[in-house]
Amino acid sequence: MKWKLTIRYLISILSIVFIVSIVNTVILLALILSQHNEDPEDIIHDTGENFTRSFFYYLSMEDGEPVVSEEGKDALTRFGAWLQILDENGNVLSDEFAPDNAATHYTPIDLVHKYKYMDDDFNTYFIGEYEGFSYIIGVPDSQQQRTIIMADPQQFLTYASQFLGAIIVVDLIIAFIVGFLFSTVLTKPVSRIIERISELKERKFEPKKMKRPGVFKRVFSNLNDVSETLQAHENERQKLEKMRNEWISNVSHDIKTPLASIRGYAELLSNEDISAEERLEYAEVIERQSLYMKELLDDFNLTMRLRNREMTLNLQEIRVEGFVKKMIIDLLNDPQFQTREIDFSSHAPELTWNIDQHLMKRAILNFIFNAMIHNDENVKVTVEVQEDGIIIHDDGKGIKKEEQAQIFDRYYRGTNTTSRGTGLGLAISRDIIQAHGGKVEMESEIGKGTMFKIRID
Fold this sequence. Notes:
The protein has helices at 2-34, 48-53, 70-79, 108-116, 153-201, 217-269, 276-307, 320-332, 357-373, 401-404, 425-435, and strands at 59-62, 65-68, 82-86, 92-96, 123-130, 133-140, 316-319, 341-346, 352-355, 380-386, 389-394, 438-445, 449-456. 18% of the residues are buried. It starts with a helix and ends with a strand. Helix 5 runs parallel beside helix 6 (217-269), helix 6 (217-269) packs antiparallel against helix 7 (276-307) and helix 7 (276-307) crosses helix 11. It has 11 helices and 13 strands. The chain is α+β, with helices and mostly antiparallel strands.
């Protein structure tokens, strides 16, 4: 994989260099060819050679002799040049802006000498031809210098093609060396990124530190963060799966007992020899066991709906003091809890919450039931309404420190639990409170009891 990436990067770089070299060559040739297609209006911005060769645009014939147009005179002025028109014998027929010491006759040798070299007044000469006549354009103090080169066009093209070929080859070699080094450095972390993603796909979530990550430092950092997050989710999933399996095992065990009772008492009911009182007693047992099984399934359905956020809240604004007080009165009127001690106090009579009363009652009662069921009968439960929430405290056995982190987990039942239960009570209470945008806090110490505090923001 690493070498495949390196070769691909290398081919990309070489292709770019090759294309750039070809494009540069084409641009160079286009610039050279464009020099021969100048607009006469723009020749004053070109070289003296091109200016002279294109000056015939400003000439016309009158009475058999060339005449300079007004545009030509203006062009000469803007270019800073002067002009002499010669006949076939080298005699000056006319001039424009020529200096007083300019020659009036030129031999062929004079023209060659003038064309090749500056004169003593630093005039650069350019020679053109129009309708059988010659003209000389002189440019005083010209910044341009003429260099005469003799060359064979065929040989020039050969040398030029060889030169361009050598340039391309050298560029490709340099690009290969630089590209190879660059690609090796670049593809190493890219290859490692691909490996890390493959490891995540294979559920290998261990974070790893990359040496010399370069520009991919943040990528590796994010991958490690993803690994840690996925590992945490995996641990949570395994933990939840383990507890779910334990819960299924416990519930299966718990269901077997009431089912056995229901079946046994149902068989007894079919006996014609039992009395009416026995028949009523057996029916009550069957009903009680059936209700327990229904509560078990209801708890399961409720926790699944809360976990999947499918529970619709019927919110109503209520005064917390009256709501909790009525709940405790109803609880103490229940024959099952008539002998239990529950103290109620309120320090926030005006406190109001916007809640689903049915669900919140279920959550608060779960905490109170938990305190009474999992402790001795003489346990004292205290319920307080404060400005920042509801506190439910008992002076019972308390919860071991190592179990406190799991107390709100679904399907978890503590080691100090001796009564029958589904392990969903506190998890349901926590989910109900969170569904209302609140939170629940817990403090517990062995031998001193447990405290739950409910806050609704």
